[in-house]
D-ribitol-5-phosphate phosphatase
Amino acid sequence: MKNIKNLLIDMGGVLIDLDRPRCIASFENIGISDIRSLITTTYLQEGLFMKIEEGSITPDQFRDGIRKLSNQPLSDQQIDDAWISMLDHMPPARLELLLELRKKYNVMLLSNTNAIHWDWICRNRFSWNGHTPSDYFHTCYLSYQLGMLKPYPDIFNHVVKDAGILPAETLLIDDAVPNCETAASLGFKTYTPKEFEDWSHLFS
């Protein structure tokens, strides 16, 4: 952590645990038979799920696309519930850690996410003890708002320019190896936590 002034923290798999098998099963239960080719077990989704995360389609367009795939008159709530079922626990200890880190570092969120997930996480996870995302992060960089996705360099370059930071003074904490590889090639320090890892040891 020597010379580190900025923290760039991923959300899924780092702050909030993910349950992709549960999400796949949820979509299969509402009639999406080939969902396994779209919700991957790696760092980047495919098809409609990639488009909503890069912001090239709206939530309503995403839902209409799911209805076409299922060939059923699914409700918005059925679709949202299936998509949100990927999101699991966000232990309070991680949120407490963020509050402490924000006192010492410039803490930023950098996430491949979408409006449906983000709205749910803000209401049901970041709202812990009455907080909001701005209590944990100085800035939130969200793929669907930026029109850019990790692991591509443009999103990292945008953060550098927008935040006015130096990559060499910035630690990226991200569970996807390709994201860390791109960031490292641009001069960032990186750390890739294991699934469910308590990465607070970095700041002991």
Remarks:
- The radius of gyration is 17 Å.
